[in-house]
Amino acid sequence: MKLKLNQLQDPFVNGSIRITGSKSETNRLLLLRALFPNIQIENLSNSDDGRVMQKGLLAIKGEVDIHHAGTAMRFLTGYFASQEGKEVVLTGSSRMKERPIQVLVDALKELGAEIEYVNKRGCPPLRISGKKLIKNKVALPANVSSQYISALLLIAPSLENGLELELVGKITSVPYIKMTLSLLDELGISTSFEGNKISVHPKKDVETKTMVVESDWSSASYFYSIAAMCRVGSQIKLSAYKKNSLQGDSVLQEIYTQFGVETSFSDTEVTLNKVSRHKTDFFEYDLSNAPDLAQTISVTCLGLGIGCHLTGLHTLPIKETDRLAALQTELTKLGAQVDIDAESLTLRSTSVINEGVPIDTYHDHRMAMAFAPLALRTNLFVNDAGVVSKSYPDFWEDLKTIGLHIVEV
Ligand SMILES: O=C(O)C1=C[C@@H](OP(=O)(O)O)[C@@H](O)[C@H](O)C1
Ligand SMILES: C=C(OP(=O)(O)O)C(=O)O
Questions:
Q1: CATH, range 23-212
Q2: Nearest to residue 223, comparing CAs of 65, 66, 375, 47?
Q3: Which one of the listed residues 48, 216, 249, 292 is annotated catalytic?
Q4: Calpha distance 360→100 (Å, rounded)
Q5: 3-21+214-408 and 23-212 in the same fold
Q6: Mean pLDDT over residues 133-159, rounded?
């Protein structure tokens, strides 16, 4: 599906949207519910990634295909490796077969798991024969993806002796690790995270409990970007959010004050108010705690005609696509000057944005969603726009409800 986004002649929006549940919280809670069936979950994500996780958890043997879902791939690897008697081949999209998983496989093997690479060493597909894991201590690199660490922590309470992890190197995407530990804590599982050591105590069962997934903050980022590019007075209400979020991407509230967007809370609704012009002409930020915001923020800066230098982006090359390369290519098509290296992106300010550019999305939901707000500045096309279903299937419909003009071409 190719979409044309027509430029909004008056850059003004006003509307309310209920955003689907966080896919990160959803996929953690689905796994925890498989271990502790008396957990109930509300506001589950309606995303593809949530669906493949839910379906994957039901398998006992045979092939489990998780398509593009990184969290499902990593979390299910830990799950099946520790489920005695289950025998699966865990596979995914062609991109998933390039996304590294050796750090997690090595750690699980160290704990006694039986896992083989079906094709290429270090990447899915994986043949997993579930085993009872008795060992409870392992060290693993922490600078590649936090998902390997969360995968181990999620199964930890079900292991006879719990788990002690030693994280080696600079820890990346830390809020996602803390989210995992907070969810365990909420279920009454005892954990500790001090320095580079994490431990989780074993737990046989948990009390009956309803866990309410907060709506997705990464999805909210596209509305922050729209609000930033609108004229003063524009307002977007989003629900259902929590003041004390477990999601690191809630840092948006702080970041977007630089772009003239103030956030206020009323119960579970957040209101984004465009109150002023942007406060900086060159935005600098380390996104190692919020890597999924890199695309949104660099496009916001292009739309506002300001430059930026974003660092901490070392995990971007192994996500749904090489996001640093994809960003450079697409921003350049729009007329921007962009430099990248292994962990950063620099955008020079430009006042002109090329019109009618077809944005390629590289099977990456965030490429489609991050560029959409540019419809506040120019006409543009988005190729393969259905990719948004990975995390936010209702994205295009929701944009229409706040007044954007979008047609299929
Ligand atoms: O644990 C999670 O839910 C996630 C962790 C992050 O990945 P990395 O730890 O690989 O950066 C993030 O980019 C991803 O979208 C979701
Ligand atoms: C990186 C992402 O997802 P995953 O790694 O779970 O595929 C994302 O949603 O931006």
A1: 3.65.10.10
A2: 375
A3: 292
A4: 24
A5: yes
A6: 98
Give me the sheet containing 61-65, strands edge to edge.
61-65, 87-91, 126-129, 114-117
Calpha distance 161→75 (Å, rounded): 19
Say whether the ipTM exceeds 0.85: yes
Q: Which CATH architecture has domain 3-21+214-408?
A: Alpha-beta prism (3.65)
Measured from the CA of 390, which atom of ligand 2 is nearest?
A: 9
Amino acid symbol at 203? K
Residue 314 Cβ < 6 Å to ligand 2:
no
Domain ranges of the chain: 3-21+214-408, 23-212
In short, whether 364's Cβ falls inside 6 Å of ligand 2 is no
Ligand found nearest the CA of 53: 2
Does residue 205 carry a catalytic annotation? no
Confidence of residue 375 (pLDDT cuts 50, 70, 90): very high
List the structure tokens of 147.
């998902």
The number of angstroms, rounded, from the C-alpha of 222 to the middle of its chain's C-alpha atoms is 13
What does the mean pLDDT of the chain come to? 98
Q: Edge to edge, what strands does the sheet with 137-141 contain?
A: 137-141, 163-168, 197-200, 191-194
Whole-number Å distance, alpha carbon 100 to ligand 1 midpoint, is: 13
Using a 6 Å cutoff on CB, does residue 292 contact ligand 2?
yes
Q: Which amino acid is at 120?
A: K
Query: Measuring from atom 8 of ligand 2, which residue has the nearest CA?
Result: 292
Residue-wise pLDDT tens digits, 250-283:
999 999 999 999 999 999 999 999 999 999 999 9
